[in-house]
């Protein structure tokens, strides 16, 4: 399969982000309550390292520990990022050296393999430890229809691969709309949607039924003047995008695996939400969401948009699936807003972001416990995990455990993943796959993210060291 050349936009995007087969099987401190007698779950135990890492090989622990400590060194991360951005990296021996180094370090730790077959083997290994997988073909931005069509084949093949894997070992297939819709068109659609929010009299003849995309507090400063309507060529390209997404949704329906749409920055997120919600209206039926959207809670308007979306879905009788995540483009968002003379759309403090994530999680847990829909809580934050467990117990775990998935990135927050799984919740790991060159932007984001943004990173290092020391002691004595 051919792969597209990565755009400079991706390589420049080096900001933070976060992204389930139950070993057993879903917002408020570490719960000491026991689950109902019908459930094997007991408590969320993040202290017993032998239990947490019992299914992880010593080789994996050593590699993970080395990478965790290396990523904690700011100067080392800065050097690695700089090397990938200099012109000499675009070809020659330096690129080969960096790619080889990446393949045996960051790539081996954070990616599932170079192709779908390798990813399948990683999923099987993970499934044996009691965790599920979110299968993510590593394509990101597409520049033209040819690239979109090639990327679509990668996503469709991902769905096909799930049919050969154990039932429920893959919880979701991930899609990035940026990979199946040309970036320029996404920007144009987002501009038109923002302008319609500013001026409701604007008619967009191409627009299908959707849920609310904006709240009153949503940023609209990206679109400074009235955009021109779509040209006939752009409308033709839009129809191609609709066809690609329809084909992917139908493929997921046939394979009985949900499709989860990843979020991007606010420059193009309105169009992504539009595609997601219009697809959800078409495919989500009978209390079984096929299409899941993503809400980034580091944005100030996140909770307001969540309330509007779920209210509209409920009114239309559409079961809504949503992933909650903190967010991935903080630096970019703040820089753009400042350049246009506006306040950042991102919460002013990390605690405000934590509070927003936890509030949205609590709301969604109550929503799915008492009605249709499902929620994915994608978090590496220990306290958020504890709060969600406590909320699940408060609601009655049996009411939400089939409607809730916890998620963490492959190679990160292993203690939290296994702790939640051991406590009886469904847990997935986000499993990107593809050639090293294709996944490079993803790897750069992981390196950037691991140097202190996540509250779990230091905790993981501590627990990994403790388990390695325990194994060494057992070996010696």
From TrEMBL:
The keyword Oxidoreductase applies. It is an enzyme of class 1 (oxidoreductase). It comes from the Eukaryota. Residues 126-453 form the Proline dehydrogenase domain. One of its GO terms (biological process) is L-proline catabolic process to L-glutamate. Its cofactor is FAD. Coiled coil: none annotated. Its EC number is 1.5.5.2. PANTHER family: PROLINE DEHYDROGENASE 1, MITOCHONDRIAL, PROLINE OXIDASE. Converts proline to delta-1-pyrroline-5-carboxylate. This is Proline dehydrogenase. It comes from Vigna radiata var. radiata.
């Amino acid at each position: 399969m051919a792969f597209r050349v990565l755009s400079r936009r991706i390589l420049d995007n080096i900001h933070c982000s976060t992204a389930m087969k139950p070993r057993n099987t879903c917002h408020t401190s570490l719960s000491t309550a026991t689950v109902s007698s019908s459930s094997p779950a007991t408590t969320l135990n993040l202290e017993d390292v032998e239990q947490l890492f019992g299914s992880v090989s010593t080789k994996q622990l050593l590699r993970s520990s080395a990478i965790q400590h290396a990523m904690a060194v700011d100067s080392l991360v800065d050097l690695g990022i700089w090397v990938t951005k200099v012109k000499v990296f675009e070809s020659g021996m330096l690129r080969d050296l960096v790619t080889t180094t990446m393949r045996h370090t960051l790539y081996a730790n954070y990616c599932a393999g170079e192709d779908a077959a390798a990813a399948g083997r990683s999923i099987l290994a993970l499934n044996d430890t009691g965790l599920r997988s979110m299968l993510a073909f590593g394509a990101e931005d597409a520049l033209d229809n040819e690239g979109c069509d090639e990327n679509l084949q990668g996503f469709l093949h991902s769905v096909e691969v799930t049919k050969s894997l154990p039932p429920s070992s893959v919880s979701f297939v991930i899609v990035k709309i940026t990979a199946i819709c040309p970036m320029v068109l996404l920007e144009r659609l987002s501009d038109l949607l923002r302008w319609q929010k500013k001026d409701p009299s604007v008619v967009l003849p191409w627009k299908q039924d959707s849920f609310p995309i904006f709240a009153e507090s949503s940023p609209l400063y990206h679109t400074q003047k009235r955009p021109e309507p779509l040209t006939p060529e752009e409308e033709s390209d839009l129809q191609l995008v609709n066809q690609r997404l329809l084909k992917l949704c139908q493929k997921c329906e046939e394979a009985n695996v949900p499709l989860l749409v990843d979020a991007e920055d606010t420059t193009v997120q309105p169009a992504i939400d539009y595609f997601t919600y219009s697809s959800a209206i078409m495919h989500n039926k009978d209390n079984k969401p096929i299409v899941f959207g993503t809400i980034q809670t580091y944005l100030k308007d996140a909770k307001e948009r969540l309330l509007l979306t779920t209210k509209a879905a409920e009114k239309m009788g559409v079961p809504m699936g949503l992933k909650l995540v903190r967010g991935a483009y903080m630096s970019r968002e703040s820089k753009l807003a400042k350049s246009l003379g506006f306040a950042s759309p991102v919460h002013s403090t990390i605690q405000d972001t934590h509070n927003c994530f936890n509030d949205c999680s609590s709301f969604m847990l109550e929503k799915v416990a008492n009605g249709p829909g499902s929620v994915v809580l994608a978090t590496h934050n220990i306290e958020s995990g504890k709060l969600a467990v406590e909320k699940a117990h408060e609601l009655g775990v049996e009411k939400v455990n089939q409607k809730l998935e916890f998620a963490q990135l492959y190679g990160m927050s292993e203690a939290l993943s296994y702790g939640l799984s051991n406590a009886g919740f469904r847990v997935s790991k986000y499993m990107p796959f593809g050639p090293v060159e294709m996944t490079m932007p993803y790897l750069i984001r992981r390196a950037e993210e691991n140097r202190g943004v996540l509250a779990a990173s230091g905790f993981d290092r501590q627990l990994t060291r403790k388990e390695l020391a325990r194994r060494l002691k057992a070996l010696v004595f």
